[in-house]
Amino acid sequence: MKKGMKALKRVAAVGLALALTGCGASGTSSQSTAGQGQDAKTEAAGGDAGTADLPTLRVAMMPFITSLPTEYIRKNKLDEKAGFKMDTIMFATGAPMNEALAADLWDVGAMGAAAVTGVANYDMMIIGEVLESTDGLGVFVKPDSPIAQAKGYNPSYPNVLGDPETVKGATILLPIGTAQHFTTLKWLEKLGLGITDVNIVNMDTAQAYQALQANQCDAVALNVPTFFEAVDDGMVQVGNLADLGTRYVDMVVANRKAVEGKQELVQKYIDCVKEACKALNDDPDMAADLMVDFLKDAGAEASRESCVSDLGRVRFITAEDWKDREVGNFARELGEFYISLGQLEPELIDKFNSNIVSDFVKSGN
Q1: Would you call the peptide bond into 346 cis, given omega within 30 degrees of 0 as the criterion?
Q2: CATH class of the domain defined by 137-243
Q3: pTM above the 0.85 mark?
């Protein structure tokens, strides 16, 4: 679909510029974010006098479920109880968070598919995993799209819609380098297609969905909460990541300088994450309330119903899980996949071994 492409590219550029505003925070307060609640303001003012001498760990966050364990730590002051304090900084997405790592603005954080770029280009390290999900990532088209009518092309994946004839040349809107991008590439793979067979345009998720509704593209790749909006609006899901054979994982990532120079603090943070993950799994009502408040304070307000749906599609990874779980399997799959598509240089595959560390999750509490 070439109609309106110039306008779409201008909108995409604006969306990317807005996403990069997440890098503008200096990280000098206890919580830097676009929308701060009273607790954040109190922390920024210095918090309790008794915490002034505690060592600080700079923690990157995003206004998504990915950062909910860190928010639990912050709200319940698990960091202070463990003998350190978090200095949190909010980013819009994983892309500006990666760029901030290059400027040495944070020590640890959590992200999804963007970790591949971080490992490959910024020497980011993967030191744990936060959650895994089986829903909430998919490629959507409008009900009258020819893609929605093409069923059964790949018998091994009966829920995947589309075929080479209906998909080739399609304009697909998505935020590049994210989980949606990965989902789209997996969908194309199941149809025997590659990235050069379609026209992928970089665009913020919400804007992309608006463009689909306005008939300005052929397909969009969505995550929550926009994913649920599309389902409710009757859009047709042509490829869900769960149907494509992959369980999506959000990872705990770190600055190499922190891993090598702040090992004790990083270990304490990982121990707090394990405790937070167990608490969130054990009390869904508390988790939903926390998520509603967290997103509101971060300027990404969502309904409680949406938060409950989001929580219902994930399972947080606890200390018990690490008895028979290995760090980085999903990251390696992502890395190998992008290399196979020519999106990363083949020699970078070594980084998905050297930059994945299991010591922290296998140690501590």
Answers
A1: no
A2: alpha beta
A3: no
